[in-house]
């Protein structure tokens, strides 16, 4: 893993790294043991314990989170050397064995599963899908561009600099295959039209809710097909960045309503838009206020407390929950700052640097999404949100039987 990324593109994660948990969780976990769709790695710089795991439909992802965490240093360091070391004798017997059986056999090689999983992930790659939602004009489309032009995907830097981003009028998915250290991630960001402009904003969440459910439906249809694809393309939304207007005042009723409805079908990550319009104090105060209002309205955003798997998870996620919602700034323009090209917004009093943690929390958001919680976002999507949709759909159909291809059922989940 050490040759994966050159050190200069590997800044320390701005949020505490969370070791990815893979496959079947501990018995206390709320997740049922579902295979497909899970898997993934931190893209830019996985924490030491972040080992890629396959996403293939029935890949060997059934390892407990602790198993993976421990296996990494062992597997990564020794895989390859072990088989040779053991072919000639029992040099390691005793040191690796804990039960009577394995004492007799010596080293078995269970820890090489990590290396095997890593190789599989390198081959298959994985999908990661993000959606941006919120009131009109809050910088959603700009942030989509920022994500692709920032350190998430430096390679895609060829763009028309002076092109103004038009108002978004339809749901649009933009995808990019990003490759790092031989691991391929297909990152899709789904841009949505802003809402709140109409005189009547009733049910303005419907098109977005429909889109989310359509992706679940697509996946479900593939799953219940008699001849299933070896790997089902995953277009399900793994998270939804919900843009909050930087008003400094209470959240709008529409925001609360929207988040409440969506939070049952997708991982909601609230973000404060256009953070450059607030002072540091205003930003801190507003963040606190938003957290409180969300709590009072019973809106659970990601990472949801109820899905913390253990105390370590809880303590890591508590820190993140206290830092949310991340206050972000978006831009697709580059400027020269101290001899370096940076993404930023040029103002009369200076340049707001998008990826500078002293200026805004975009880097924190990016690290949280990709370096520490990517795997977990995929798991919660698959094991909780998709599972809820699937159970409801299969019940509606009176059991497990294939759904015909012209069945255009839409769920009101
Ligand atoms: N100050 C500031 N302005 C921003 C930021 N991000 C985007 N903008 C500006 O806000 C305006 C709207 O940006 P868009 O990205 O089109 O906003 P949107 O949310 O996609 O708008 P709709 O498609 O209408 O929903 C543009 O003039 C952007 O340059 C930001 O972080 N700070
Ligand atoms: Mg837009």
From TrEMBL:
It is found in: Cytoplasm. Its main location: cytoplasm. Residues 1-100 are annotated as: Disordered. One of its GO terms (molecular function) is GTP binding. The keyword tRNA-binding does not apply. Keywords: Cytoplasm, GTP-binding, Nucleotide-binding. PROSITE patterns: G_SEPTIN. InterPro entries: G_SEPTIN_dom (IPR030379), P-loop_NTPase (IPR027417), Septin (IPR016491). Residues 124-396 form the Septin-type G domain. Residues 52-67 have a biased composition (Low complexity). One of its GO terms (cellular component) is cytoplasm. The keyword Transmembrane helix does not apply. Residues 68-78 have a biased composition (Gly residues). It comes from the Eukaryota. Belongs to the TRAFAC class TrmE-Era-EngA-EngB-Septin-like GTPase superfamily. Septin GTPase family. This is Neuronal-specific septin-3.
